[in-house]
Every structure is written in C-alpha cells, then in structure tokens.
TrEMBL record:
InterPro entries the record matches: Cro/C1-type_HTH, Lambda_DNA-bd_dom_sf, MLTR_LBD
Lineage: Bacteria, Bacillati, Actinomycetota, Actinomycetes, Kitasatosporales
Pfam families for this protein: HTH_31, MLTR_LBD
Signal peptide: none
Stretches the record annotates as Disordered: 1-27
Residue ranges of the TM segments: none
Name assigned to this protein: Transcriptional regulator
Amino acid sequence: MNGKTRLGEFLRTRRSQLSPDDAEVPTYGERRRVPGLRREELALLAGVSASYYARLEQGHSMNASPEVLDAIARALRLDESERLHLHDLARPAGPRGRGRRPAPERVTGATGQLLNALADVPAIVVGRRSDVLAWNRLGHALFAGHLDPGAPGLPDRRPNMARLVFLDAHTRELYADWPSKARAVVGNLRMVAGRYPEDSALHTLVGELSAKSENFASMWADHRVKPCDVADYELRHPLVGTLTVTQQTLGLGPGPNIVVATTVADSPSATALALLAQAAAEVTAEATAPATPSRPNTHVSDS
C-alpha cells in the first residue's frame, strides 16, 4: 500500500467516524445514507475546496501544505498524535531500494546499564515494531514469565509484544481489560507505520496479525492512532494475583525505548509486585546455583 492510499484511507475513515453533531454541522433533519460527514462538509470546515479535498482522499494529490493539513486535522477533531500522523502520511515517500531490509535494532551498552539499574522495577526494552530486545528479571516475570527468559538475546527468537497481545493466550489473560491494551498496541503500530512507511518488517508483522487475528484486522481498519506513553492496566498474574500497574514508555531518541511498570507505594499492588520479585529471585538463584556433586556410595555390605 503506497502513501497515497494510506492517506486516502485515513481521511475517509476518520471522516466517517465524525458525526455532524460532533462537528456542529446542521443537518436540518435530513436522512443521511452514510455515517459521518460528507466530503463537501469536511472541506467547508477545513476551509478548502471540495474538489481539492476529494483529490486528497482519492490519492490524486500529495502536495498539501502543512497549513492545509492542520486545517483538515482541526476539522476532523484530531488530537496531537493524530495530527502528526496525518503529516507523516502526507509526506512524500523517499526513494525505495528493491529488497532493502531495515537496519537491525540493538540494545546499546548505556541502555543495558539503565535496564540493570532498574532491578526493582519491571522493565523491558522494545523496538519500534514492539520486538522485545531485552528485559530485566522482574520485567520478564511480570509480562512473560511463561517464556524462556533468555529469548531476547537471540534475534530470531525475540518475542514481539503485539504478537503476544493478540496471539498468546497467557498474555490475553494477563490483561483484565484486554480490549484497551489491544487498541493501544494497534494505535501505536499505526503511528509507527506512518512514520516509517518503508519498513518491510513492519508491513510483514501487520499482515501476519491481520491474517491470524480478526480483532487485530478490525482494529487496524479503524485507523486510530495512539502512542503507548502512559497507561494504567489491571493485571491478573498467575503467581501473585491481581495488581494494577502504570506502564510508561521512556523515550530514548530514535532507537529502542524502555517500558517500565510501577505501582502505588504501600498498595496491595506494590505488595504483589514485591512477592513476584522475591519469586523471580528464587527462580534465578536455583537456575544459577552450582550443581551439587554426587556423593560416593559409602554403604558397606554386611556380607
């Protein structure tokens, strides 16, 4: 799907989701055959000609000025993340080399040091496609204790948070309000897809999830954009029960980000997280303990 198609789909979908009442457009009681605003109504709100706006939706124009895009964003009642996404979609694509693969994402030494310093806080390092590049002991125990803790160290075995949320039964059960988490994952992938339109690995991931999950396909078609910055989630952990965590994404520039989970001090959730930390430490200690040497058989027969 090229940039013109993505821009047109986004505009059409968001226009259909904006009712005349929400946009304060009078309808005079007429019956409308389609939901949302008509093209000419949206164009009038944005202060552009109906023919020009129609060309944008049809993919016949990719030279809209920032001022026009901002006017359309205001008419569509887009928030700041959605406005930036609209600008990303309207940006002319650069030259694309055939078969070009995206550069691999790696965890820098500084990021690894920060991850280790957050020993008492669940933390994972995720790439822009939501690949788990690394995690600390508590991050693994909280979000993916059923997986091999050493998996992020090997690129071909890295878990992907989007795949886990939509295709992994354990992760689906972990989130009490799974639809909210799922929408956040899709909204973030939408935003990344607009920012990196030539990322073939991201297109492959979206295609896989669309084919394997009807929920993902439906949410992806909604064209909602949502950065995964800060959100509260109730988790139903199989070891320590129910707890509420605040997930925050700590931006580290253009590279991978660290996602941390915190709890309110002196709360039942903080107690549950402390119990999980203790259990994770015990598992690690058992796994790293030197094997006990076998004792020689000193039994002496009576015969």
